[in-house]
């Protein structure tokens, strides 16, 4: 069946041209001339993709995208390409924040438009085709061997890569209960719901959890940390395993960003996790901590492969290279993320993760490589089991 594309543009010439080009490529096309009509047709026609002009009568493109994203909730996602006349980065970021997946600056070449359409349809198709397949339900914990090594940066951007680049359904939990940073990294206010809204409810079920999750513009669903440190103690060691267990039935990946305490809450979540990524940098105090963590974790009897080392800022000059670090730890470093301080800090300070707005930067590509390796792991593990 041909994919259906909704074109929302008030310029009859652009409309005609797009209709002609898309039909030639074998797509079904529906058109709307203003934002309100575009929004209505999204509901009535259930298109596979939307080409959305920014400057539109009634509702502008940003408003249409925002309304669609709010309406479709966490279970669906129609790919949207914004068509904009403006070149400014500002406009691009605004479009992406409103919920667009991609954007094109007018005038554009039809070949480029087709390439973008095909890539987006492919990115979102697997999930459509997989409706009915159970989610992978993999739980992956990100643990910093030391404060400030980049654990949150890696967890957030890996979540976005897994979702936007690899088409997985992803839930990201801020498990740093006292001083969670996700609201800052993702530009979200203290008014957004948090894990406190779950643990203070009379009973915990999937419906409740779904209501508390916050949808980020990137398409990743978030379970935020309490808004203040004193409410963190409402979360007991039993809560996170219970919540994660419910989320396994809804998501391919549940990523949990935790702080470095090996207390009952953190040990509880590690117990139910499939993988623990220990994030480190190449310095002596970090190496000491990693050694201690590996020793402590060693007593817990996890199977090998559950604990994996991630060396962040791997190419930064610290006087200790990867080989030295591996020698000191007597084990291999499983993953490496490149050093790019400017990219990382400016993303943090603008509340727009680099994987969302600068996926093709050095750091973005490094994170995507990491996400690809993660995503291949379960398949490999299943294959190993199947051949036994
Ligand atoms: N690959 C990288 N290259 C350069 N700088 C990075 C990289 N990853 C993270 N950073 C920077 O390191 C700092 C700490 O990052 P982040 O908050 O993610 O670390 P953390 O381990 O979660 O810290 P905390 O202990 O406070 O939770 C930030 O300024 C971030 O921009
Ligand atoms: Mg952190």
Helix- and strand-based class?
Answer: alpha/beta
Number of helices: 16
> Hetero groups bound?
adenosine-5'-triphosphate, magnesium ion
Number of strands: 13
The rounded distance between the terminal residues' Cα atoms is 40 Å
Major sheet details: 8 strands, mixed
User: Which range best describes the helical content: under 10%, 10-25%, 25-40%, 40-55%, 55-70% or over 70%?
Assistant: 40-55%
Structure described in brief:
Helices cover 46% and strands 15% of the residues.
Report what the structure shows:
The chain has 388 residues and is α/β, with parallel strands linked by helices. Helix content is 46%, strand content 15%. It contains 16 helices and 13 strands. It has helices spanning 12-24, 35-45, 61-72, 89-98, 110-129, 151-165, 182-185, 195-199, 206-212, 239-248, 264-272, 284-298, 322-329, 341-350, 354-357, 362-386, and strands spanning 4-8, 28-32, 49-53, 80-84, 102-105, 138-144, 170-174, 214-215, 221-223, 253-258, 275-280, 307-311, 335-336. The chain has an eight-stranded mixed β-sheet with strand order 8-9-7-10-6-11-12-13, with helices on both faces. Helix 6 packs across helix 16 (362-386) and helix 10 packs parallel to helix 11 (264-272). The protein is globular, with a radius of gyration of 22 Å. The protein binds adenosine-5'-triphosphate (ATP) and magnesium ion. Adenosine-5'-triphosphate binds at residues 144, 147-153, 176, 181, 312-313, 337, 339-341, 344-345, 348, 363.
């Amino acid at each position: 069946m041909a994919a259906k594309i909704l074109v929302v543009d008030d310029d009859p010439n652009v409309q005609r041209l797009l209709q002609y080009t898309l039909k030639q490529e074998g797509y079904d096309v529906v058109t709307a001339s203003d934002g309100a009509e575009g929004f209505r047709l999204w509901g009535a026609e259930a298109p596979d993709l939307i080409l959305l002009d920014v400057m539109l009568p009634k509702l502008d493109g940003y408003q249409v995208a925002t309304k669609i994203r709010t309406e479709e909730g966490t279970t669906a996602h129609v790919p949207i390409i914004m068509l904009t006349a403006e070149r400014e980065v500002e406009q691009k970021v605004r479009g992406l924040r409103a919920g667009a997946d991609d954007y094109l600056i007018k005038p554009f070449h039809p070949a480029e438009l087709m390439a973008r359409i095909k890539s987006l349809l492919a990115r979102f198709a697997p999930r459509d085709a997989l409706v009915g397949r159970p989610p992978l339900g993999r739980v992956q914990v990100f643990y910093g061997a030391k404060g400030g090594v980049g654990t949150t940066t890696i967890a957030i951007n890996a979540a976005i890569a897994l979702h936007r680049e690899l088409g997985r359904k992803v839930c990201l939990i801020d498990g740093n209960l006292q001083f969670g940073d996700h609201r800052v990294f993702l530009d979200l206010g203290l008014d957004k719901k948090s894990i406190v809204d779950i643990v203070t409810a009379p009973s915990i079920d999937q419906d409740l959890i779904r209501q508390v999750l916050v949808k980020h513009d990137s398409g990743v669903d978030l379970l935020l940390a309490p808004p203040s440190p004193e409410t963190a103690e409402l979360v007991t060691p039993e809560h996170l395993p219970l919540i994660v267990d419910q989320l396994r039935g809804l998501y391919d990946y549940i990523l949990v960003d935790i702080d470095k305490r090996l207390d009952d809450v953190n040990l509880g979540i590690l117990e139910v996790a499939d993988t623990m990524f220990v994030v480190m940098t190449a310095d002596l105090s970090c190496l000491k901590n990693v050694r201690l963590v590996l020793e402590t974790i060693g007593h817990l009897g996890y199977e090998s492969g559950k604990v994996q080392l991630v060396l962040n800022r791997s190419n930064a000059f610290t006087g200790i290279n990867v080989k030295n670090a591996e020698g000191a730890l007597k084990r291999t470093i499983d993953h490496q993320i490149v050093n790019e301080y400017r990219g990382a800090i400016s993303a943090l300070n603008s509340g727009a993760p680099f994987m969302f707005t600068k996926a093709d930067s050095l750091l973005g590509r490094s994170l995507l490589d990491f996400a690809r390796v993660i995503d291949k792991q379960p398949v490999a593990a299943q294959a190993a089991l199947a051949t036994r």
